[in-house]
Amino acid sequence: MATLSEPIRLVAWADIQRTEDCPGGVTKADLKAAIDAADNWVDANAAAFNSALPAAARTGMTARQKARLLLHIVSKRWEVS
Length: 81
Hints:
Blueprint: H1 6-17, H2 28-52, H3 55-60, H4 63-78
Helix pairs in contact: 1-2
């Protein structure tokens, strides 16, 4: 899957600013750059994540299911929902 479009990145940027844990200590431009970097990282490392999964999951799960799995694990690490 390709990186997010610029309009979707801007929606993510606005959404994060509305959360109770909006990052302090960075400017809005820095936050936008962080969103861009995170999205680019996900794109660059998607194949590595897929390769790390057991063969049954790698071949039996859809890309959406794998993304939800990753989202769930990352959220649980910090108990975020």
